[in-house]
Amino acid sequence: MSDPIKFGTDGWRAVIAREYTFANLERVAQAYADFLLERSPSPSVVIGYDRRFQSELFAPRAAEVLAGNGARVSLFAEAVPTPLISWAVKELKADGGVVITASHNSADFNGFKIKAPWGGSAAPETTRAVEELVDAQPPKRASGSIEPDTAKLAPAVESYRQQIASYVDLERLRGARGTVIVDPMHGSGGDWVESFLSGGELKVETIRGYRDPLFGGVNPEPIDSNLGALKTRVSETNALVGLATDGDADRVGAVNEHGETMNMHQVVPLVLLHLVRERKMTGGIVRTFSQSVLLKRIAASVNLPIHETPIGFKYIADLMLKDDILIGAEESGGIGVKGHIPERDGILNSLLFLEAIVTAGVTPSEMLAKLHREFGEFHFGRKDLHVEPGPGQQLVEDLARNPPSQLASYLVTGVETMDGTKLLFDDESWLLFRQSGTEPVLRVYSEATSIEKTEALLSAGEDLAGVL
Known about the structure:
By secondary structure, the protein is an alpha/beta fold. The protein has three domains: 7-153, Alpha-D-Glucose-1,6-Bisphosphate, subunit A, domain 3 (Alpha-D-Glucose-1,6-Bisphosphate, Chain A, domain 3, 3-Layer(aba) Sandwich), CATH 3.40.120.10; 168-375, Alpha-D-Glucose-1,6-Bisphosphate, Chain A, domain 3 (3-Layer(aba) Sandwich); 379-465, Alpha-D-phosphohexomutase, C-terminal domain (TATA-Binding Protein, 2-Layer Sandwich). 38% of the residues lie in helices and 22% in strands. The strands form five sheets. Strands 1, 2, 3, 4, 5, 6 and 7 form a seven-stranded mixed β-sheet that branches. The protein has a five-stranded mixed β-sheet with strand order 9-8-10-11-12. A five-stranded antiparallel β-sheet has the order 17-23-22-21-20. A hairpin with a 5-residue loop joins β22 (430-435) and β23 (441-448). α3 crosses α5 (150-167), α9 runs parallel beside α10 and α9 packs across α12. The mean pLDDT is 95.
């Protein structure tokens, strides 16, 4: 029997050479081809890939299947950031896109992301429809290999660069004094951020910029446990800030001037305030279920509407398409901003956060201290526990039905179940349990009014999961 194909929050991901094989990739590509053919007799598709093991071989194979079904395929010749591929889909008015990537997952994973015509993550309805079409018919491949379509894609690459250059004040950034360390974590971000900043007074250094399919032995996710090299280099050089992107460069991470990781519960509110107060921009604010309480408080302060969605950037993208949205953000580093495609973009958001720092004229830690003085002090933490989907989801459901009356000596005052199970406390602190949709991981998140309370809640959450 064929392996079951299940789509998670952002496409299909699986372990290379176990479930992620050429045969299974062909099954998924055929399902996507069937989906597109239901809507167009000759659909056009942009295909790109990241720097993972054999991504440069998996992408042409997907292209062969799509071309074998009559699709007009434009294949990138090298690994590029996912947001560039999304941009190319929109610029070329393609019917869709495919990115061969497992984003921030560990090196043994690869994946198949679907991009919508508007240049963003496919809607849940799309991924469900594609999943239902798996094995509807056997894969059909083109008779010959598919060559990269560099000539057709080159204008889209150039227009993407122009878009980034026009969105941020590059002249101001290049003229700033100090050092910035950029860490693409061996992913497809490569030297993209540095390429926008070089040539001025600002000193820019890229570390871990070369391809390593093992990502230096860490997951290519820009969170504290994986940013040791960036934290060390920022401290060694007395840099103003360190900027990181994940494996396919659609997420962003940061390290402050002390070599301390800044999480997205800190970075996103600072970017939001920069957009509202310095750029005078308006629009709704979207936060996913695991994002910060601070976004609610800032939205109320500046009289902007706040929206909350399940975890997954596709939900943010859906709102950005329907409404006037200023910024949408998720805890894992995905940020979308007004005036750009409805997509996470680690390249743009690295530069935008640097613009916020340079404009503020103070260090990142001073910016954060000011934020806390104005809107209250909240601290965030997360634990990723290796738990198989069945037991993990059962715990999440049990907590929703029978939540504890208190945890770590703190009274539980409410429960929310939009995406996982979130236990609420009387000072707006919270603890969230959520089984990953893309890997065997139970994520336990907490945001609380002190570091000590955050750590206590996370430890209590880990103890609950420890019975599995």
